[in-house]
Amino acid sequence: MAGELLPIGTRPKLVASFDPPDAVARFREWQAAHVGALAGIPAEAWRVEYGRTGVGPYVRVRVDEAHLPEDLAAG
What we know:
The chain has helices at residues 23-33, 35-39, 70-73; strands at residues 12-18, 46-52, 57-64. By secondary structure, the chain is of the alpha+beta class. The longest helix has 11 residues, at 23-33. The relative contact order is 0.29.
């Protein structure tokens, strides 16, 4: 098949997920608890995704596999 087995670059891994109703507050607590690990990741290698459900906002944190620290991968 065309394109099969071609490298697609790094994939983002979901490392944390917070659901409503207090998703943003729990994300801020998680971020503060992992500030050391996050500081070692290049800014372009991790992303914070915000969205909204009928109940309230949710937050997802993803880190590219190539830059994923061990302490975030485990948890």
